[in-house]
Design brief:
4 domains, Molybdopterin biosynthesis moea protein, domain 2, 406 residues, 6-stranded mixed β-sheet, single chain, alpha/beta, elongated, 7 helices, Molybdopterin biosynthesis moeA protein, domain 3, MoeA-like, magnesium, Molybdenum Cofactor Biosythetic Enzyme, Chain A, molybdenum cofactor biosynthesis, metal-binding, MoeA_linker/N
Length: 406
């Protein structure tokens, strides 16, 4: 069976994805959520012409030449506008954010004035429109401020609030069920024996999924028995998860039971072997009956993390209606050391950023790339990407990197 290129596998995975329905949430709960509908301003901001500085509002013609002394007739503060009109020869004390009084068309900042009682002398000539924020200068009522398919950031929330919008329509968080398999697996803190393995990949995979916007439920560890594996898969599919993620048992050994269990429960497996290192034994498919996307990750913790970054994170984003590139988003960098020629699989090597060269990150791959070694994964800043059949490269050569999202 030929290995499928990473880009082709990602495109196939995303080809059946439909964004989840939206739900309305209060603005204080919207951070990090994906907009399911545009945000439209309910008010104009600023709502009137306002001052950008502390100073004096006046008619520019009254201080076209200086010094010019005008009569102070009142004050305009933020939230307390001056009720009258600026007539020839008069001025109004004004503060930042205050409404420009009727009749005024300029502001002279307080540093360019002197005051003696109600007489204010302008020492800097006035310019029409100077230091004035015009009504609607930021946005106007009815204007679309943010489009659907945008993940809301802190500064987006400020914009939405200023537009007098207190609730937004966002995509429902994808529900992800996570199954681990293997007789050798035990939980951290359970007192593992030498022949046992402490399960670790579920924690990194769950963290990546949550960071991408999902709700994650850990469905536990299944033993290497067909009846138990199939029962666990059936229960997960019956629970209505949007995505079912399995870790381990994705290869073709005697104890790798995930593929036959998924097939027995009606999951159409589209892919099983990817031209990828680490992570060749990866599979995905869809349960039409349960409307669940299924992703089978390798058991090796590094492989599981890399595959989750490459496939699970885009899947979760696509379910929220977020734009997902058709291939991993790679950045240019330069090599700090020589690297060997690559074979047929796309290689994602753990690497550190050790400096900069000609404005680009300078990266050094870890000396050991074994897919079970977690210390190197934790130390890595990026993944150094080696294309299939890439020739050897020397220190200083251009290369490509993928940021580790977390």
């Amino acid at each position: 069976m030929a290995l499928m290129p990473v880009e082709e596998a990602l495109a196939l995975l995303l080809s059946t994805v439909q964004p989840l329905a939206g739900e309305t949430v209060p603005l204080e709960q919207a951070a990090g959520r994906a907009l399911a509908a545009p945000v439209v301003a309910r008010r104009t901001t600023p709502g009137a012409d306002v001052s950008a500085m502390d100073g004096y509002a006046l008619r520019a013609t009254d201080a076209a030449t200086v010094p010019a002394t005008l009569e102070l007739i009142g004050e305009s503060a933020a939230g307390r506008p001056f009720p009258g009109r600026v007539e020839p020869g008069t001025t109004v004390r004004i503060f930042t954010g205050a409404v420009l009084p009727e009749g005024a068309d300029a502001i002279v900042i307080q540093e360019d004035t002197s005051r003696d009682g109600d007489a204010v002398t302008m020492t800097e000539a006035a310019t029409p429109g100077r230091h004035i924020r015009r009504a609607g200068g930021d946005f106007t009522a009815g204007e679309t401020l943010l489009e659907a398919g945008r993940r809301l950031r802190a500064r987006d929330l400020a914009l939405i609030a200023a537009a007098d919008v207190d609730a937004v329509s966002v995509a429902r968080r994808p529900r992800v069920g996570l199954i681990s398999t293997g007789d050798e697996l035990v939980r951290p803190g359970a007192g593992a024996n030498a022949h046992q393995v402490i399960v670790s990949n579920i924690y990194s995979v769950a963290a990546l999924a949550r960071a991408a916007g999902a709700e994650v439920i850990d469905l536990g560890i299944l033993p290497d028995r067909m009846d138990a594996t199939q029962a666990g898969v059936r229960a997960a599919l019956d629970s209505g998860f949007d995505v079912l993620v399995t870790t381990g048992g994705a290869s073709v050994g005697d104890h790798d039971l995930i593929a036959p269990a998924l097939s027995a429960e009606g999951v159409d497996l589209a892919v099983h072997r990817i031209a990828l290192r680490p992570g060749k034994p990866l599979m995905f498919g869809r349960s039409a009956a349960a409307r669940t996307q299924v992703l089978g990750l390798p058991g090796n913790p590094v492989s599981a993390h890399v595959c989750a970054l490459l496939f699970l994170v885009p899947l979760i984003k696509a379910l929220q209606g977020l734009a997902v590139p058709a291939q991993p988003e790679l950045e240019p960098a330069r090599l700090a050391t020589d690297v060997k020629a690559n074979e047929q699989r796309m290689d994602f090597m753990r690497a550190e950023i050790v400096g900069r060269a000609e404005g680009l990150p300078l990266v050094r791959p870890m000396p050991v790339q074994d897919s079970s070694m977690l210390r190197n994964l934790a130390r890595a800043d990026v993944l150094l990407v080696r294309r299939p059949h890439a020739p050897s490269a020397s220190a200083g050569d251009m290369c490509e990197i993928l940021r580790l999202e977390d």
